[in-house]
Fold:
Amino acid sequence: MEDVDKGLRLPVGRRMGIFETGDMVGLDVTYGAMMATYQEKGDRRWYPPLLLRRKVKAGHLGKKTGRGWYVYGPEGESLGPADGH
Structure:
């Protein structure tokens, strides 16, 4: 996960990787967008992956809950990857 984010930041010049962006937006928002697209298109490729569904169900929604793909401190700073992802 950290390597994927780093791989997007460095060569592509993005400010955040895909997992960092997901945590900032909220994993519940990502889930909702994927479900809406899946329902509209009927294409199974848009169905949210099991790991994302589990995180949302557990309430690990990203920065707003302090835990998503990464764990966050009280000031919103990243403390590193979340365990058990």
